[in-house]
Amino acid sequence: MSGEKSLFTRIIEGEIPSFKVFENEHVYSFLDINPATLGHVLVIPKEPAPYLHELSVESASEVGKALPRICKGVLEATGATSYNIIQNNGSEAGQTVFHVHFHIIPRYQDSTHNFTWKPLKLNKNDASLLAKEISGHIY
């Protein structure tokens, strides 16, 4: 990653205008300018980490505390009763702005976007080994 500021850092700093819905010392949230549905909001940490696993524990915690509050605000303002929270890490996962961000996407009865996939079969022996392997890398 270059030393250049991300689009979201430029928004946080006021260099690029946004429709802010929430801000505190650690988190900034604003309307997505290319929304999937009415009320689609982005929630970003002010810390400029490109991937969730690179975010500090403090920033991750603050985002975690802000998300439910912002979701409730989106639901009450839009009248939606359901929503998706989407967070992508890496270009293969669909990330286009390399600054951690969460999408809150309200769902309506006539919503047509879809986030389903064809499930794979889970082999219990392979799953046991993989779970142990992953656990061994968590610190």
The portion of residues forming beta strands comes to 15-25%
Task: Indicate the structural class.
Answer: alpha+beta
**Order of helical and strand elements:** HEEEHEEH
At the fold tier of CATH, the topology name is HIT family, subunit A
Helix content: 25-40%
CATH class equals Alpha Beta
Spatial shape: globular
Poorly predicted runs of 5 or more residues: none
Helix count equals 3
Outline the biggest β-sheet. Answer: 5 strands, antiparallel
- Architecture in CATH? 2-Layer Sandwich
- Give the spatial strand order of the biggest sheet: 1-2-3-5-4
Task: Give the number of domains.
Answer: 1
Gyration radius, to the nearest Å? 17 Å
The CATH homologous superfamily is termed HIT-like
Q: How many β-strands, per DSSP?
A: 5
